[in-house]
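Bench notes, afternoon.
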Amino acid sequence: MQWTLVIPLKPLARAKSRLADTAGDGVRPGLALAFAQDTVAAALACPAVEDVAVVTDDTLAGRELAALGARIVPDAPGSGLNAALRHGAAVVRDLCPRAAVAALNADLPALRPQELFRVLDAAAEFPRAFLADAAALGTTLLAAAPGRELHPAFGTDSRNRHGTSGAAELALTGVDSVRQDVDTGEDLRAALALGVGRHTAAASARLLIPGQ
């Protein structure tokens, strides 16, 4: 099955506030962009991914991610993460009503195409499915088969909320790069240990990260 990924990205100036202990105000926007660039580049290199739609109103991010091959969808609702995902999925389905759609976090800088392939291949067995994050509290990917609505419930305790919504949790091992999102300095250290993409490697090179 071929998938279209919907990746939401808030304006860079407001992104990654929880990295304040690791990166200053002038650095965080560049890190957030680098995370998204490495996420999109890896996603587009995945054999199961036909298209990537990034929902964002950030001009710089839109330009840089379009240069990688992503389709940019303006965040018309402007009402937060789940509204952006519903809008992005609707735009995708307007163009291709039978598309298999998956929401993917924009902060997966260590993402590996083959690990993403394994996750999407497993998700294809269910009407809706999700992958928990490395902390086992949140969600990094939510998939909906053709003809099924995405019904995103990202945010606090999204693993539990997606499970109670009827989506199947994917019990996979060896897909750490798809689970490792980055919200905190500890998350960034974990992603660096896995091996991040070139954009994040360059953006984080000048940071002093204890334990790195």
